[in-house]
Known about the structure:
This protein has 20 helices and twelve strands. The protein is an alpha/beta fold. The longest helix has 50 residues, at 50-99. The chain is elongated, with a radius of gyration of 35 Å.
Amino acid sequence: MLKTLGTQIKEYKFVSIMTPVFMILEVIFETLIPLLMASIIDEGVMKGDLRHIYIMGGWMLVLALLGLWSGAMGGKYGAEAATGLAKNLRLAMYENIQTFSFSNIDKYSTSGLVTRLTTDVTNIQNAYQMILRMCMRAPMSLICAMAMAFYVNAKVATIYLIAVIFLGSILLFLIRKTMKYFDQVFRKYDDLNESVQENVSAIRVVKAYSREEFERSKFRRASENVYKMFVKAESMIVLNMPLMQFTVYGCILLISWLGAHMIVGGSMQTGDLSALLAYCMNILMSLMMLSMVFVMITMSIASGERICEVLEERSDIVNPADPVMEVSDGRIAFDHVVFRYKKEASDPVLKDINLEIHSGETIGILGGTGSAKSSLVNLISRLYDVSEGAVYVGGKDVREYDLDVLRNKVAVVLQNNVLFSGTILDNLRWGDPDATEEECRHACKLACADEFIQKLPDGYQTYIEQGGTNVSGGQKQRLCIARALMKKPKILILDDSTSAVDTATDAKIRRTFAEEIPETTKLIIAQRITSIEHCDRIIVMDDGKVDDFGTPEELLERNVIYREVFESQVNGNGDFDEPGKEV
């Protein structure tokens, strides 16, 4: 874990080194001040030497100013190093997440990734700053103060040694107890973030069903869980302060009592007692700072492990050593394909799929809910890798292609359409960053989106809110289709992407595709027979297998599933998953 996190210090190594250097200087300057104070008392005040008082007082002022400057520089460099590490950690995680395949992303919840990028990184940032400053300052101050205390009077300084051993044992015990609570509390943060994210993204549904009270109750439970875990952890940690105060006051009383006896006996001077009391506070304050550092480190260990999980996650879909850089055409072939979302799963999602699709064909894909239609098309652009067999595009195994080349030539409009915040043109240029406005208009005309865009007040400069909340479902689908067409793909996959479009517009889109992009292979997943009845051929999926593959006329004649769906929708105005239908 330390090695993984340490690699992200990068350009902040210098400030990370300079921070403890300045903290050591601050400690040295502060440690010398009590000695000068003792000299003022013993040599100046007790002997009435005003000149000595002025000289030592001047040196104390110089040391105080140097200590102040060192502390300020240490704080400045420490803040720069910690915030720089946090910046690099967030960037490294975000960049690594972008490389994840769908199977990698499936391991993490969205809320879990958000917590790692925010709360967990902030914990590491705070811990790193404390390590650079306090972890160097506190031990150094402790050692210097202890050494000076033994130099002044070894007998009295033994009290410090006993106090340090006592507090160190207590601190170790508390850390071991609280570690398990901090490990659990960040998992509760995931649940809290998930509740917020789900509620905000689905606020229209929440209000439509009047579920505000339910969502409030759900959030309250998640917040309560975080509260309870923190209370358990903090209730252990707060014991540290009263024990520390008890030890501090106990040491002061013992030193004062023993020191007074020694002064009366003539074996110690008054200034030495003053210096010992000052070193007592230094030592015990150093222990207090160390306890705070250890508490922060305890919290950050759990955060560090969660961050490292993301940083060390490696995509299971990578480019081959010598990738193919061109997709020749839109041919598709499935050769005995078996697919599982998880390697350990016993029952595959797709079972022995064998298909051959010609370049330029329009293929419909029909099947009930859970029949693995989306899983089938996800393999074509290598969003997932097959478990067994092979998928071929343009005559080449998809695993031989450069990923960017393959995905730029296999455009997918997924089932869940997503638009990003920005203008309509910004969204369209996801398909081609260098596209002109005229090219964007042409793609929108093919997707039947141009007509509604022209009616918007700002046309193609209309700002789309995050998630496309200011456009309708059908408008969003058409914009996503236009965005996919901007890639000028060899293969276009529409995963139930016209479900929110009226039948007339759906027919117009299909007709335009046939006339304008005849060489592009088009795969259309649909629940409506009208969306695929004019396709060249149709794949009928059932329980992860190809039940049949043929022309609409052939399937109507020989395939039971297709015929029942056709009759229920065309003649009975039913739906594919209509209750009572055996499919």
